[in-house]
Each structure stands twice: as structure tokens, then as C-alpha cells.
Design a protein that fits this description.
84 residues, single chain, two-stranded antiparallel ribbon, mainly alpha
Amino acid sequence: MIVCSCNALSHKDVEAAIDSGASRPAEIYSARRCKAQCGNCVPGMLCMLRSALRDRDPAAAAASERAGAGGGCLLADTDRMSMS
């Protein structure tokens, strides 16, 4: 699935950047040797980042959500599974 139309980044590109240690959208762009253009992909990237955090460290994700940083993700678990 294309996450960023401007840079033709797929969800696999974003996942690869996250797996390589990217923790912010700017780091995802940098890892893929591109830059933000229109910004419409940022919410999807943030969703993928939050999901990766939950998958890797549930305790840290819970603390982040208690601090108010966990909401706003519209990507359902079923959508995420179908992207794999």
C-alpha cells in the first residue's frame, strides 16, 4: 500500500525505516532519501510508528498513552494485518 504518494513510499518502505531505528517521520524520510512534501502521509506514518512501539515495548506504549500521546491513529488492526 502506498503511504506517501509524493515520494512513492509504500508501507514496506516505512516499515523498513522503522525496523532500522527510525522513530519520527523525518527519520523515515531520511532513511528513504526523500523529504516531506505535502505532509498528508504524516498521520499514517505516526500510526505505523505507534503501532511498532506497541508491538516492541507494550510497557512504554502504555506509559505514552497515559501521557496522552497515544491517540489519533485511524489504521485498524485488520488494515495493518492486510498490509503484511
